[in-house]
Write a structure and sequence with these properties.
It is built from 13 helices and eight strands. The protein is of the alpha/beta class. The protein has an eight-stranded mixed sheet, with helices on both faces.
């Protein structure tokens, strides 16, 4: 039997539910800032939705915080609209993407110059011993392509050039000729040898040179990059939310916690994670996405900090992915609302925006887990 507190919260929750604006359902791929498309990221927030949230719940000059930043969608939209951004994530892949987007070279010419210099340095390195590369990684690439890739990422890591690293990760695997791997899926790496047999598609299994593909990727990244200064207006922290120190005062929080038990970020990014750290065997386990108690501890830690540092009248937007469940008490949104009520009494729930996720926005179209997102809109009073 549910407690009176849970009943009250659920009644309040459903009282505040509204549908998403119609324009949230429209595609934004051809209109969004092209930096959003540096490299794929499972479950990332749609950029047009992030843009709306930033515009609605903050004003120019405000400091926006995203402690579960993922691919940096919120942070980038904050900078594009004249805000400042403070982002954080426990993922090494997220760190590269966030810093690549929030601190990208100021012009295409500058980016291409850095790319040529990095390629030149990588060519001077000795060829790696591919016998030391795991067999599951080798199976994705022609041997010469793999050697070029390893040497290039070695230089990127040496000089912490996360923009070029992110561009490389964005062309790492796919079946298209513009990518580096043998025919494989785009988001989750697995080979498509049955769909593209070697004897019928020999051209897809030939050597793929890194340089022209990387330069083309950089040009695509700058196709719709506004000429606005972004450097100096953002900070990214590579850490868990429990160990994160938020700014002493900020204007708005917009974040999407990892979908608990719904997405496997380590498995889905395993090939990119290997290039980020060749010694990688098992990615850093983030128990927040595995166990409810760990999720509760992390969220409680976060909302306590928000309760202390969010400015009065500032907004806190928490985006929660719901899994299909037979018992309402297992809905993650209700769970989050209860945590906020317990640990952040200054936050008042104003509205809940409910967005039903169409199959076209899924990385796995037959996936039966997350079907709905709830945008929980709180205000500090």
């Amino acid at each position: 039997m549910k407690s009176a507190k849970v009943k009250t919260n659920m009644q309040q929750f459903y009282k505040n539910v509204v549908s998403v604006p119609d324009h949230w359902k429209e595609s934004c791929v051809g209109a969004e800032c092209s930096l959003h498309q540096l490299s794929p990221y499972i479950g990332k927030l749609k950029s047009s939705i992030a843009r709306d949230l930033v515009a609605t719940y903050s004003k120019p000059g405000d400091l926006i915080v995203d402690p579960f930043s993922g691919s940096g969608t919120v942070g980038l939209e904050a900078l594009l609209q004249g805000r400042r951004a403070f982002t954080a994530d426990i993922s090494a892949y997220a760190k590269i993407l966030c810093e690549a987007k929030l601190k990208s070279p100021p012009s295409l010419e500058c980016a291409l110059e850095k790319a040529e210099d990095t390629l030149s340095q990588s060519h001077k390195l000795p060829n790696p011993d591919l016998r030391k590369v795991p067999a599951w990684v080798r199976q994705f690439f022609h041997s010469q392509t793999l050697k070029e890739a390893i040497k290039f990422t070695t230089v990127c890591k040496k000089y912490e050039n996360n923009f070029l690293f992110a561009c490389f990760l964005g062309i790492l695997h796919h079946q298209r000729p513009g990518f580096l791997s043998y025919p494989s899926s785009h988001l989750v790496p697995y080979l498509r040898e049955k769909k593209y047999p070697r004897d019928q598609f020999p051209e897809l299994y030939q050597y793929r040179e890194l340089r022209p593909r990387l330069l083309s990727k950089i040009q695509r990244a700058y196709a719709r990059r506004p000429q606005i200064p972004m450097n100096g207006n953002s900070v990214h922290k590579y850490c868990s939310v429990k160990s994160l120190n938020l700014p002493g005062s900020f204007d708005c929080l917009i974040t999407s916690p990892p979908y608990m038990n719904a997405l496997d970020y380590n498995r889905d990014n395993r090939l990119r994670l290997w290039f980020i750290n060749p010694n990688y065997s098992v990615a850093r386990e983030d128990k927040v996405i595995q166990k409810q108690e760990a999720f509760k501890i992390a969220m409680a830690s976060l909302v306590k900090k928000v309760n202390s540092s969010l400015k009065t009248n500032g907004y806190c937007v928490i985006i929660v992915g719901e899994r299909i469940a037979s018992r309402p008490k297992t809905h993650l949104s209700h769970f989050v609302c209860n945590i906020v009520a317990d640990y952040a009494p200054s936050l008042k729930l104003l509205e809940v925006i409910e967005d039903h996720i169409p199959d076209i926005r899924r990385s796995r179209r037959d996936y039966r887990g997350t079907k709905t997102e709830h945008f929980l809109i709180f205000q500090k009073v």
